[in-house]
């Protein structure tokens, strides 16, 4: 039985079999029985490498942060996470550089996390917004009644915990519901390219 620690582009934490290519955390979210009891504890939502300096952890150990898993970096961004400064230092500095360029504001971790926290949650629910699909850059996630879809090249690619299992032509125009926080979409427009699961090529 998989643990409840797989994160969807909607920011949900579900028990799904797919491990994904990236780990992250939002603080201690589970109890001693490894049950999720809260969706976040801290505003520092980060996306980490699966391995860091040979460290080994017991997943969801009591009183330790909850290890979360994402299909890829684009999924982590859609859920409202940003690169970890410790295990993904080069990615973090690149993210910082794009943030300063795009937003003209401080790009220290606390400042970025504060803005992202406002953009990812509407009370206890995922914050979304509407945008014209033709304006959205590759790496952005949109949603409809059938689930979450990644904008990439000329297609929308359907998310699943095991990979991108559907695709449809990207509409030339029309309003869509966007899952990726607007401050991160701005970085994509400026040239930041998130890492994508290998199934995108199928």
The largest pleated sheet is described as: 6 strands, antiparallel
What percentage of the residues does DSSP assign to strands (E)?
A: 15-25%
The overall pLDDT average reads: 95
Could you tell me the number of beta strands? Answer: 14
Could you say which overall geometry the principal axes of the C-alpha atoms support? Answer: globular
- Low-pLDDT parts are none
Radius of gyration: 16 Å
> Which class best fits the helix and strand makeup?
alpha+beta
How is the topology of this model organized?
Elements: E1 4-7, E2 13-15, E3 22-25, E4 46-48, E5 68-70, H1 73-79, E6 82-83, H2 89-103, H3 109-120, E7 121-122, E8 125-126, E9 129-132, E10 141-144, E11 147-152, E12 155-158, E13 166-169, E14 175-178, H4 182-190
Parallel strand pairs: 4-6
Antiparallel strand pairs: 1-2, 3-4, 3-5, 7-8, 9-14, 10-11, 10-14, 11-12, 12-13
Helix pairs in contact: 2-4
Main attributes?
202 residues, 4 helices, alpha+beta, four-stranded mixed β-sheet, 2 domains, six-stranded antiparallel β-sheet, 14 strands
Quickly describe the structure:
The protein has 202 residues and is of the alpha+beta class. 21% of the residues lie in helices and 24% in strands. It folds into 2 domains: 4-121, no CATH class; 124-201.
Explain this structure to me?
- With 202 residues, the chain is α+β, with helices and mostly antiparallel strands.
- The protein has 2 domains: 4-121, no CATH class; 124-201.
- It has 4 helices and 14 strands.
- It has helices at 73-79, 89-103, 109-120, 182-190; strands at 4-7, 13-15, 22-25, 46-48, 68-70, 82-83, 121-122, 125-126, 129-132, 141-144, 147-152, 155-158, 166-169, 175-178.
- The strands form 4 sheets. A 6-stranded antiparallel sheet has the order 9-14-10-11-12-13.
- Helix 2 crosses helix 4 (182-190).
- The model has no long low-confidence stretch (mean pLDDT 95).
């Amino acid at each position: 039985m998989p643990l409840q620690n797989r994160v969807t582009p909607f920011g949900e934490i579900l028990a799904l079999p797919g491990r994904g290519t990236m780990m992250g955390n939002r603080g201690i979210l589970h109890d001693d029985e490894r049950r999720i009891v809260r969706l976040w504890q801290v505003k520092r939502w980060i996306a980490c490498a699966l391995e860091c300096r040979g460290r080994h952890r017991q997943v969801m150990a009591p009183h330790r942060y909850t290890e979360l898993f994402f299909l890829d970096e684009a999924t982590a961004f859609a859920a409202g996470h940003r690169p970890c400064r410790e295990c993904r230092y080069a990615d973090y500095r690149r993210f910082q550089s794009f943030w300063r360029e795009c937003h003209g504001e401080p790009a220290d971790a606390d400042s970025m996390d504060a803005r992202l926290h406002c953009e990812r949650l509407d009370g206890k629910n995922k914050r979304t917004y509407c945008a014209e699909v033709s304006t959205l850059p590759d790496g952005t996630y949109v949603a409809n009644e059938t689930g979450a879809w990644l904008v990439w090249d000329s297609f929308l690619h359907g998310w699943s915990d095991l990979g991108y299992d559907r695709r449809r032509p990207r509409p030339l125009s029309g309003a869509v519901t966007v899952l990726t926080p607007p401050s991160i979409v701005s970085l994509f427009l400026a040239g930041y390219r998130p890492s994508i699961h290998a199934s995108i090529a199928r």
